Amino acid sequence: MLGFITFIALATAGFGNSYGYSKPVTFDGRSLMIDGQHLLLFSGSIHYPRSTPQMWPSLISKAKQGGIDVIQTYAFWSLHEPQQGQYDFSGRRDIVRFIREVQAHGLYVCLRIGPFIESEWTYGGLPFWLHDVPGIVFRSDNGPFKFHMQKWVRKVVNMMKSEKLYASQGGPIILSQIENEYQRIESAFNGKGSRYVHWAAGLAVGLQTGVPWIMCSQQDAPDPVFDTNIWDLQINTCNGFECGVKFEGPNSPNKPSLWTENWT
After folding, report:
1. CATH topology assigned to domain 3-262
2. Distance of CA 60 to the CA centre of its chain
3. Which of 33, 67, 131, 142 could form a disulfide with 137 if both were Cys (CB 3.0 to 4.6 A apart)?
4. For residue range 151-190, what is the model confidence (pLDDT) as tens digits?
């Protein structure tokens, strides 16, 4: 599956996608910057489990030929942990192999960890066994949910780190996403929704990936750590129709306008 998605930036410069050394990913109010260069990046989605490893090279090559710079994918929790504590990263679930294939084609990656991903995927990507955890309330300031969410997010991030896949390590991952389209339901949880968003943001930046984190469709994406390190900021992104017209813009003048899903 290939969907057209745009990262909006206000300036651009030529760049080469060779790897093997650390590439600082930063940003300002104009755009993302890689190696200090302001870039206009076009992104498309290829979800690794919706195809086979044999198909990945062709799909990625076609995306590159179509002018794509960044491949976006979710991390599918329910697919990787169908039974509590039993993980599977083989075959079409081999997310590391997929990201390395993207890297081999000279493209970047935006890894949308969630763990709620929507994506027209059963249970929004949450594993079925999670439903049976005593006292759990999904996507809220709820101890059992946060315990299991944190465990999964840490597992994914640590896997990426161990494989040196973040741009800060010389890899292709230039952005990561925590949660997904949460603002639409946040008010239903009253104050627990806001507390959950702040907790999720703190979890993300505390993992110290060396690349920026985003929150999709979360205008109030918080900055949980207030210092001069830009990796402690959450970039709120637009998701939907006509973001160029309807998007209220970043919630800080020091953040760029990013458009993670362009619905057509």
Report:
1. TIM Barrel (3.20.20)
2. 18
3. 142
4. 999 999 999 999 999 999 999 999 999 999 887 888 899 8
